Amino acid sequence: MEHFNIAVIAGDGVGPEVIEEGKKVFSGISRIDGNFSVSFTDFPWGCEYYLKTGEMMPADGMDLLRGFDAVYLGAVGYPGVPDHISLGGLLLRIRRGFDEYINLRPIRLLKGAPCPLADVRPEDVNMIVVRENSEGEYANVGARLYSDTEREVAFQTAVFSRHGCERVIRYAFELARHEKRSLTSISKGNALRYSMVFWDEVFAEIGQEYPDVETHSLLVDAASMFFVKDPKRFEIVVTSNLFGDILTDLGAAIAGGMGLAAGANLNPERKYPSMFEPIHGSAPDIAGKGIANPLASIWSVSQMLEFLGEREWSQRLLSAIEILLMERRILTADLGGSAKTADIGAAVLEILGR
Amino acid sequence: MEHFNIAVIAGDGVGPEVIEEGKKVFSGISRIDGNFSVSFTDFPWGCEYYLKTGEMMPADGMDLLRGFDAVYLGAVGYPGVPDHISLGGLLLRIRRGFDEYINLRPIRLLKGAPCPLADVRPEDVNMIVVRENSEGEYANVGARLYSDTEREVAFQTAVFSRHGCERVIRYAFELARHEKRSLTSISKGNALRYSMVFWDEVFAEIGQEYPDVETHSLLVDAASMFFVKDPKRFEIVVTSNLFGDILTDLGAAIAGGMGLAAGANLNPERKYPSMFEPIHGSAPDIAGKGIANPLASIWSVSQMLEFLGEREWSQRLLSAIEILLMERRILTADLGGSAKTADIGAAVLEILGR
Ligand SMILES: CC(C)[C@H](C(=O)O)[C@@H](O)C(=O)O
Ligand SMILES: CC(C)[C@H](C(=O)O)[C@@H](O)C(=O)O
User: Fold this and answer.
1) Ranges for the Isopropylmalate dehydrogenase-like domain (chains A, B) (predicted)?
2) Which ligand is nearest to the Cα of residue A249, counting in written order?
3) Among the atoms of ligand 2, which is closest to the Cα of residue B77?
């Protein structure tokens, strides 16, 4: 019998609440299936840990995670701890440390999910964004000179390596070929002539190896306009770290809201564990009230199941979320319902068991 | 009698067509008013010029423009000339060379303008974006190493100086105070710890001088979500060069489309001429057909009039555009009409003359 060992970092704010539901669903599925089992090991890292120890995770934290089949992350961030410390010390550290260079974010409007766009049907919003997740604008290279003087200046350097660009672009081409869908590269060569002109060149080069894949290139400003005006033109999208960050939040807005947005941080070679997370933040304003929407967290379980080879369950779980949305019986307040966070996992399992 | 000397760079693609209508409107207004006159001097620069001469503008181009009261720009860019050459050699060169460090972009949904958002009324979309326009991500600092080898790497460095941040943030605070509206700073301190953490600090510092102005700070990813989900929370917005680029295209999408989006590139000290432009591109696919929508170009005349001290005409012109949209008689195809580009200027003047 197959067994999956999952490391859980529930993190801050609503993190523990939404993760709890995801765990319930994952365990429940393993019971229904009967052919695989799952165990969760909790790591109490995050901002509270930081306030006690001065570190977001212990010095040997990465070693402790290394042996797991996947990392399941809730949310990171807390009023009082500067974001660049909390995120840099945990979320971004794991993404980089485990070379999770692919950030895979489905932007898909499920039936029954709310959409702020007029005249858009669920089938019009159905793309997968492949975001570069290890370098680029997030390379964390920079300096600040002449602090607190009039001449003060801050530099932030984006680093685009050939290796880094090639691997994410190639991944996106493989995905587009496999899914028989078009691929759109989003960049900004007209203003960022070092980084983005290079990105565009690599995209064109790799494209030569995939004559069967229809390709498009868009500027990030135009792309953000089309996300709103004509989302159906996007199928598979590949873009840089920062642009992927912006566009996937915009994508979440048009695909049901942050309560429904999941993301996978993949190390495709499986040399290190991959990490799965709802992409919303820790939402301190509603933390502890039991009202956070755990569907993004549950959707990320679907992504985890897919990565672990349980493709059918991955899809069944996504369908169950869609049914839950369409039935409108058991939904959290952000979706117009009155259910509690803790009701959602069971409701999803009930649908799966029908 | 006051006289305005305007330098015109109609540029590429639809540029000349839309600029023609703006000139008509400006001249027409001066005739109706009777107390000021205007003259236009055309400079035939752009991509055709580049193909003939190897330069987007002559070596003494900036000197030729220096004496004018304003520069009126159409569009720049042409298939066959790489964007980073055409833009860098003209649009961005003027922005930088004339220290037009404020890019002022109204995001305002006029009555009668189309909006892709459900449940949004015109009064919900009414903000002004103050975009840093001289440095930041567009500083044009970078390098490429080990070209065409596996180790190739591109660096692109964003430069945020205290002087550069302070002046744009201060401008935005002054505007917010003057208009009695809130000010939202949009940045990304949680991932870009040099540039954006610095920006956030400067924003907080300058804010101390404006206790009467209500302030907010948002991450750029969250902001792009809220542009779509809750645009009315934005009144005055201040942000970096790149984020302003992305957010104002997104803003254009929710405020009637690119056919209605104007931008002013201001040197507030008036040491150099300021530049006014529709923010759309050269649209080569429809160039020469006489069907481009010139309303963005005409809106930028309204911005020009305001900057030249003709505030009342600036507002009357904007109202005339709104009436044109509401009447729906004379509109270009992108707005569902069948009028030609060349019909629009006269239609606007007819309304102004009523
Ligand atoms: C929390 C933050 C650092 C992170 C990012 O910018 O990558 C988040 O916005 C995301 O999209 O996963
Ligand atoms: C054409 C391009 C360089 C420019 C920019 O990015 O600033 C444009 O998109 C704009 O917004 O004015």
Assistant:
1) 5-348
2) 1
3) 1
- Closest chain A residue to B201, measured at CA: A148
Residue B83: pLDDT band with limits 50, 70, 90:
confident
d(CA B179, CA B253): 24
The reply to whether residue A191 touches residue B84, judged by beta carbons under 8 angstroms, is yes
Q: Where does residue B336 rank: exposed (0-12), middle (13-18), buried (19+ CB within 10 A)?
A: exposed
**b/e B264-280 (16+ beta carbons within 10 angstroms → b):** bbbbbeeebbbbbbbbb
For residue B106, give the H/E element and its range. strand B102-108
Beta strands A236-239; A183-187: pairing state: parallel
| pTM of the entire predicted model | 0.97
Chain B residues within 8 A of A188 when measuring between CB atoms = 242, 245
CA distance A39 to A26: 10
Catalytic positions of B: 138, 188, 221, 245, 249
Minimal CA–CA distance to B173: which of B138, B216, B142, B136?
B216
Q: For residue B285, how far is the Cα from the chain centroid?
A: 22
Cα distance between residue B82 and residue B31, in whole Å: 41
Give, in order, the Cα–Cα distances in Å from B171 to each of B130, B192, B287, B309: 8, 24, 37, 18
Residue in B84, B117, B143 closest to A189 by CB:
B84
Q: Name the nearest CA neighbour of B293 among B14, B74, B11.
A: B14
Contact B297, B21 (CB under 8 A): yes
Residue to mutate, A12, A87, A105, A107, ligand 1, most ligand atoms under 8 Å from C-beta: A87
> Which amino acid makes up residue B162?
R
Question: How close, in Å, is residue A182 to chain B by CA atoms?
Answer: 22
Q: Which residues of A are less than 8 Å from B138 in CB distance?
A: 191-192
Q: Which residues of A touch B200 (CB under 8 A)?
A: none
Closest CA relative to residue A75, chosen from A343, A344, A341:
A341
DSSP states of B239-308: E-HHHHHHHHHHHHHHTT-GGG-EEEEE-TT-SS-EEEEESS---TTTTTTT----HHHHHHHHHHHHHT
Q: Give the number of the atom of ligand 1 that is nearest the alpha carbon of residue A263.
A: 12
pLDDT at A114: 96
A53-83: b (≥16 Cβ within 10 Å) or e: eeebbeeebeeebeebbbbbbbbbbbeebeb
In 3D space, the residue among B144, B168, B156 whose CA is nearest the CA of residue B241 turns out to be B168
**Residue among A212, A132, A134 nearest A180 (CA):** A212
pLDDT in tens, A203-258: 999 999 999 999 999 999 999 999 999 999 999 999 999 999 999 999 999 999 99
Which helix (H) or strand (E) element contains residue A75? strand A70-75
Name the 3-class secondary structure at B194: coil
Which residues sit opposite A238 in a β-bridge? A130, A185
| CB-defined contacts A:B, below 8 A | 204
For residue B171, what are its two tokens?
């401008």
| Ligand 2 atom at shortest distance from the alpha carbon of A190 | 3
Maximum Cα interatomic distance, chain B, rounded to a whole number of Å: 68
Q: pLDDT band for position A84 (50/70/90)?
A: confident
- Cβ–Cβ of A154/B151 closer than 8 Å? no
State the distance between the two ends of chain A, measured CA to CA, in whole angstroms.
24
Task: Tell me the CA–centroid distance for residue A245 and ligand 1, in Å.
Answer: 6
Contact A200, A184 (CB under 8 A): no
Is the pLDDT score of B208 beyond 90? yes
C-alpha to C-alpha distance for B272 and B67, rounded to whole angstroms = 8
Q: Which of B134, B196, B147, B143 is nearest to A159 (CA)?
A: B143
The catalytic residues of A are 138, 188, 221, 245, 249
